[in-house]
Structure formats: structure tokens, C-alpha cells
Amino acid sequence: MEILTVKDLTFTYPTSSSASLKNISFSVNEGEFIVVCGRTGGGKTTLLKQLVPSIAPLGNRLGDIDTHKCKIAYVCQSPNEQIVCDKVYAELAFALENQAMPRDQMIAKIAEASGFFGLDDILYSDCDSLSGGQKQIVAIASAMICRPDVLVLDEPTSRLDPIAKEKLLSLIKKINRELACCVIISEHYIEPLLEYADKMLLLDKELIYFGSVDGGLKALSGYPPLKDALPASTRIYSEFNIDCKIPITVKDGRNYIRKYFKNDVKYLSEDKKEEQKESAIEIKNVYFRYTKNGKDILNGAELCVKKGQVFCLLGGNGSGKSTLLSIIAGALRAYSGEIRILGKRLKQYSGDLYKTVTLLPQDVLTVFSHDTVRQELQVCKNINEFPYDFTPILDNHPYDISGGQAQLLALAMATGNDQSILLLDEPTKGLDKESSLSIADMIKKLKESGKTVLCVTHDSEFAAMCADRCALLFSGECTQNLPTAEFFRCNTFYTTPISIMTRNYYENVLTVEKCVEIMKINGEKTV
Amino acid sequence: MRTVMQSNPLSVFSFYAIVVCITAASSSPVIQLLSLIGAVACNFGYNTAKKAVFSIVLFVLMAILNPLFNTSGATALFFINDFAITLEAVLYGVSASLSITAVIYWFFSFSRIMTGEKIIYLFGKLSPHIALLISSVIRFVPMFLRLYSQSRKAQICMGICKNDTVINKLKCEIRVLSVMITRCTENGIITADSMEARGYGNINRTCFSFYKLRLYDIIYIIIYVLLAIVTVFAIASGCISFEYYPTITVPKASPLMYASYICWAALVFLPTLTQAGKEIKWKYLLSRI
Amino acid sequence: MNTLKKVIRYSIPFVIMPLTVWAGTFLPFKNNYIIISCIIAILSILLFYCSFDTKKLSSRRLVLCAVMSSLCVIGRFIPFLKPVTAITVISSVYMGAEAGFLIGSTSALVSNMYFGQGPWTPFQMLAWGTIGFLSGLISPILKKSKCVFIIYGALCGILYSLVMDVWTSVFYNGSLTISLYISAVVTSLPHMALYTVSNVIFGIMLFKPLGKKFERIKLKYGI
Fold this sequence. Notes:
The complex is a heterotrimer of chains A (527), B (289) and C (223).
Chain A: E1 2-12, E2 21-29, E3 33-38, H1 44-51, E4 60-66, E5 72-75, H2 88-98, H3 103-116, H4 132-144, E6 150-154, H5 162-179, E7 182-186, H6 191-194, E8 199-204, E9 206-212, H7 213-221, H8 224-227, H9 232-239, H10 250-260, E10 279-288, E11 298-306, E12 310-314, H11 321-328, E13 336-341, E14 344-345, E15 357-360, H12 373-376, H13 403-414, E16 421-425, H14 433-448, E17 452-457, H15 460-466, E18 469-474, E19 477-483, H16 484-490, H17 497-501, H18 512-522
Parallel strand pairs in A: 3-7, 3-8, 5-6, 6-7, 12-17, 12-18, 15-16, 16-17
Antiparallel strand pairs in A: 1-2, 1-4, 8-9, 10-11, 10-13, 13-14, 18-19
Helix pairs in contact in A: 2-3, 2-4, 4-5, 9-10, 13-14, 14-15
Chain B: H1 9-25, H2 29-42, H3 49-69, E1 76-80, E2 83-86, H4 87-113, H5 116-126, H6 128-157, H7 166-197, H8 215-237, H9 255-288
Antiparallel strand pairs in B: 1-2
Chain C: H1 2-26, H2 32-50, H3 59-75, H4 84-95, H5 97-115, H6 121-137, H7 139-144, H8 146-173, H9 178-187, H10 189-221
Helix pairs in contact in C: 1-2, 2-6, 3-4, 3-5, 4-5, 4-6, 4-10, 5-6, 6-8, 8-9, 8-10
């Protein structure tokens, strides 16, 4: 049965001259699971908000949305901002309070939701003390508590780390499977959803495709601006014209490569880079803990970053990656150990440390204080040196530009005083693939202009793209300090999907581009 | 039986309101002293040493201050430049400071016991919208505090703000405040949308709380009121009031006086007694297991 | 619930308040003033809260009020200079008198959860709330010139201090004597200076940027 019908929807924001959504028509049936894909700025959020009558943005709307009187719940991407109350139970009760439900019924509903979503342990906690993943679960639970027919999720996992992402996505699947609640979800990271989803919706201001997942993947691979959003194995598939089942998972991709491609050539010829001798950052035996009797966050960490190198430090949540960056930037002080920057000890830099070193925070919105990009850029000495052109967005508000642009803007501000050493804290967090690629490009460009980059990240594909050397931070120590190719070849879990797919078949192939290149050199198998 | 402090916020609040009002209003040092002891007992087990130093200083200061402003009283202790310091004025000062110290001590425990949840419950009875406002402020404050230190760190570590001279520090503070204001107001719209999506806007909204006004809460309130009535009646009839000027007159012993002292003592020690009762009961129960 | 509010709304100013004052003069207590003034302060806060037109308190306004009061609370953590009054005044200028009262009073209440509740809480709530309310009322004048705004900010600092001194001396002595009041004023002079200076400094620094931000928010939020 249809529960949501959109007919010829065209929507224009009052401040913009062109339509954000053009002629969109589709319909959703009861209990379906729909994945919405599209690039940033392609109108995903606008469309999803239009589906929820109470928060539909104001503007010029043509066409029709028929919700068939069903209840629609909405959850967005920011774990911090969408929670209203101070305690978890109060947050769950919020929607019920608005309906003026009797107290006994409220308690029963809260008990149910708390059981289903596994919130019993944190029910009386402060919402503020929860992790990002827990906050998102609370947000979903409090949206689900009035038993909606449709749950609309706008990039619910984009601000979470990989493990919390997996957990949240499986919870969303559980909601669909066990409660038969229709789910409409937009995501950057669609891989775990593709096998489960019923339908796919591709959006780039216009409706590009609406229908089954297989068809969606085909449509995606034929539409260059959205291609980057595909899982690695599907991207490889899209480069060739082989008629077979579309590979989605790493396993599928591995089988695909082995089945259809030869491996006569195992290596790609690479130009060996000269290793610089001079070190930019040198860390020896660093120990750090937050409180006197606390646990050591850094436990004899050792690290050396050479001048002009891009160094990526990978590691799980809470492994102390950000802490290490703060220590190098002098914001925290290690209780033991030696840190040298350009050969000079950290302690010997007094006020002029930030003329050499600059730390870009994880949350770049903590950087902007002005109303336009132009004003923000005034902190830079010479903006023309920065390899990105901000001209089209100079008069925009920093909060109105896309996440990727905001990251670039912050990067420009961070390098404004010609600092030669850049410390980046998760620069691709919350960004879609396209923006991640542009950040990786930018880092390469900065490297060419002679800067040293130490980057902390969860994103192994990103590291594979731009790093010269990688290391893994675990239990307060830096291990596996190896050149990028070797690093990913040696790792079993902490590696890129392509590396797993091509393991024992090709060597030192980490990225989709490289993989496609070597596959083209080898050629298809003749059956 | 739950302790006084565990009962419904409404009954806890009425306890404090009654006790603090009578303590502040009475002129009898006996009432004040009992109240002070009761209040200190209520804070037993919590580290109030730092606050105690403050209140002792206040106590001495007040006792000294009064005679400087008040020269009435018959018994002069000594003179400062023809300015009489009288015994009565000193004692009056001591009595006044007793009552203020007691009030301050009551508020120590009040601040500890009246958590955000309880305040929200109380305001929720009045207006669920205000309760929601308070609830979100309580949620925002720690979040913003963290944001404040994050943006401060970001500004300094990016070399935008300098943390050396006073002027630079002030500039940095203003910039960080500006970042905060932008961030918080811009993102507020997400919070507002999330509220709207969950049906905010109904005028007849209620305020949920796990607290419920049960029978024993009402019994507690009745007990407070009854005990307070006896004390207030005694104060009103003047049979326990001390006169300081011109000379100190101690009230004559009377049944009402004793009754009011006993009632007052029962009232101010009720939280401690119920707490002690609970502790003993637990010990007894645990030793049985 | 609504009938209760209505009862409160009309009974407080016309019945309960006069009754308290009248009964207060007959109270046999030594410290009548402190109790009466406390009750009156609480009653006026109640009155304000109950007479709010909750229809007007849309989600966006409510969130914005919450954000501004949280910023005020954070402001109290800054050593020496307190931007509380400046933030309250600026936000009430842009959001109106009712919101101003809400912001002022809520920040007093919540910040005292960190700095300790006391008998001063209702007075602080009332004082800050009134500052917000007044600035909301005269917002057209304040919006026009920065100069007037800064003078108003300085006045707010001085008046706030003077009013709280009345309370201090009443609380310490049970009644208001001139000599005690003057000494209270003198002892709190550094505080007064600090209030005034911070109001002026933050007023100068925040007036324009914050105003701009509010204009943008009003446009974006559609308030």
C-alpha cells in the first residue's frame, strides 16, 4: 500500500534563483527500505525535509506531497544538536509530552523503547555524557517512540566513527525488519545498506533514478558526478563492460577480479621517491595521561615525520590520536619524553611555535567567527598562495558553504601564516567521497609547496590516496611505521577494500584508480 | 519509608521553604542555633570545609559589624572615639549571624539535593514550556563549555589568537565568544527542527518526570506544616522572643515555649533522623542477609 | 492546567501580593522585610512565567532563548569580566521583552546550579529578568545608537549592584538602615565597577557583531 506519494515536486529556496528540486515524482510503499543517494548540495536534505510536513523548509513549492495521513519521524546527522533535553529519559518523553499523554502511558512507552534500543543502562544519564553513536541511538529512539509509519534519516552516521556507523546502520535495519517501519535514509556510506535495501533513489536536483538497487547501481555507475559514492568493488565494475551480477561487497569484488581478469602483470611500475633526511617532527618516548592516577593515553610513543612528507596516523577510537596531535601542537603537555620540531625542542619555542606549526581541529566550525568567507580569510597573509579558489563563495556565510568547502576554508586559515608543519585531525570526517577526494588533492598540493603534513584519520582509503608513510597508533604506541603501500599490504584489517580484493593477486594496489589501471594492463580473461 | 530528601521535590521544596523562612524570621537564638545544627547535620558527610571557612568569616564579620551600626543597648563594653560598643548590640549581631549562617548552610544542602531534574519537575508543574527551557539550558551548558575550550584551543593552535599579553588574551576571549555565539545560534535551528519533527507546538504540553506525588509525600508536607504552625504560633505569641534593647530579656519558661522548641527541633532534624533511620535499617537488613 | 494558570495570573497581582504586604505588616517576626520581599520576588517571577503567551514561544524562539541563556551561564565562568548582562540586553533587544525576561531569569537560575543556590536566587532571577524585560521594551532606542546602548549597559551594571545591595542589607539586618546600606554599597563598589566595566567592554565588543548575527538568524529562522 502506498503511504507516501510525491508528484512533480519542484522547490526553490527564497534566497536562491534556481530550483533545488526539479520535477520529482516517486511513491513509497509500506515497510520499504529506501536508500537516497546524491552529491552534497544535490537537494537530499531538502527533499527529506519536504517529506516531513512540520519541518518543510519555506520556499516556493510546486507539486504535491501526499503523506496519506501517516506519521513521519525525522532524524538528522548532528548528534549534538538534535537532542533537546538534559536526560535520556526526558529526551524519550519529549514527543509524548507534546501529545500531552497520561503519565502511565508515557512510562510504558519509554520502557518499551528503552528495551528495544538497549538504552536501559543510560536511561538516567545526562545526554551530554554520551558518545556520538549513543546520542544518535537516543535520537532515533525518541523519534520512533510515537510509532511512526515512516522514519526519515538524513545522513545519520556521517559524524560517527566506523564502528559506531556499523552499529547504527544495523539498528536501522532492525527497525525496518522487526517493526516493519518504512525507512528512507540518505547516506554517504551505502555499502552495508545496498544488500538490504528495497529501493534506491538517486538525486541530483532532478530525480535520476528510482527503483530496485541493482538498477540503481547501474544508474549510479553511469552517472559520473555520483560515481564516487559507490562501494569500491562497484566502482571497478563500472569501469568495464562485463555483464554479470553487480559486485557490492569486498568479497564480490575479489571474486569479480579473479573471475574476469588476468594477473600476468602483478606490479605497477612506481617512481621511487627520494626520502628526505631532515626530520620535521620527532617524538621520542612520549608518555601522557589526563589525570594523575589515570591510564596512560600515550605509552612511549615514538614517531618521526620527515620534511615534506605526508604522514597518516591511523587508529581506533580513543587510541590517543588527537591527543598526540594536541601534544605536538603544545596544547597538552606530555609528562615524559622529548618532542622536537625542526630539530628544536618544543619547550624552546615560546610564543612563536604557531608560526611553524598549525593544528586544524576535528570540528572546523569551531574556527569561524565572522559572517562571510571574505572576512574569515583576512587572517591569511597571502590568500593567493593557497591552491584553492574561494572567489565564488567569498560573500557566503561560512555555515552556508558545504562541508568540504568549510574544511578547505579552515585549511586556508590554518596555513595563513605560512606555517610549514600542518597537523590535521580527521580532515574527512563527515564528508562525502567527492569532498574527501578534494581534500586529498589539496594535501598533495600543499605537499608540493613544501609543507609537512601529519594527519590523523580513520579513513584508510583517504590515507592510501595521499600519504607517503603510515603508522598505526595502538595502546599508546606507534606501530607499523611503514611506507603507505607496505603498510596496507601488511595489515589484515586496517587496510583499504581494494588492497583486500587484490591480495595475493596483484601487489601494492591500494586505490580504485590503480586497480583499474592494472586491470586494464592485464586485460580480461578469455572464456 | 523514604527519607525527607528522597521524597517528592514538592515536599523537599516545601521543607526548605518553611525551615528557611522561620530561621530567617525568628529572633530567638535557640531557634536559630537548632536550625544551624540541623543544617550542619544535613551536610554531614559532604565536604563543606571550604564553604565552612567562608561562613565562619561571615559569622565573625557580622557579629562585629552590627555593634558598629547600632549603638542602642544599655551595657557599654568599651568606647571607640565616644562610640559605645554595647553588649546587647554584640549579642544581637551574634544572633543575626547565627540565623544567616543557618540559612546559608540550608542552602548548601539545597543546592546539592535540588538537582536539575527536581527543579525541572517543580517548574513543569507551573509551565511545561519553562521546564523545557530550563532542561535545554542544563543540557546546553556543559556542551557549550566543551565547545568553548575546543574553540579556544583551535584559535590558539591555528595561530589566529595569541595567548600572551592581556590585550591579546581579551581579544582572544572575544573572538572565541563570537565563534560560540555563531556556532550555537546557527545550530539552534537543527534543535528547533528536531523539536518540530517530534510534534512540538501543542499548547497543552505536559512535563514528564519519574517523580510522582505519593501519599507519604503529602504526609511529609502535613507534618512540616503542623510542626511549623506550633513554632510560628509560639513566635507570634511572643513567648519565645528575645528582647535585646535596651537590655536583654530572656523569655519566661512556658509549656508553649518547650513545645515550640521540641517541634522545631523535630522539624530541623527530620532529614537527618530519617537518613539515620535508613542507614540503620540497611545495616540491619544487610546483616540478616 | 490552563485554568490554574489563569487563576495564578489574576490572583497574584490583585490578591496575593497586596495580601502578603498587608499581612506582612502584622507579622510578629523580627525580619518581616526579608520574608515579604522574598515572597514578592518569587510571586512576580511566577506571575511573569504564567502570563507568558506560550503560543508565541515557537520552537525556534525557545531554542534561541535556551542558547542565549546557556551562553550567559558560560559567561559567568569567565574570570573577572562577566558578559552576562551584555548578552542578555543584546538578545532581548532583538528578541523582545518576554524573551528577555526568560533569558535573564533562566540564566540566573541555572548558573546558580553551578555557583550555589541561595536566598539570593529569586532576587537575581528577578533582577536579570527585569533587565532583559526593560531592554526589550526600549529596544527601538537601544538598537539605534551604540552610544545609548553602552550608557544603558553601564546603568544596568550600576542599578543591578545597587538593587542587590538593598537586598544584602535587608538580609543582614532584617531592615533597611541607611548606614548599613551605604556600607554595603561601599563594600560592593569593586563589584559594581567590574559589572559596569564588563558591560561596557562587552557592549562595545559585542553590540555590532552580535546584532548582525541576530539579524541573520532572524532571517534564517523566520522569527
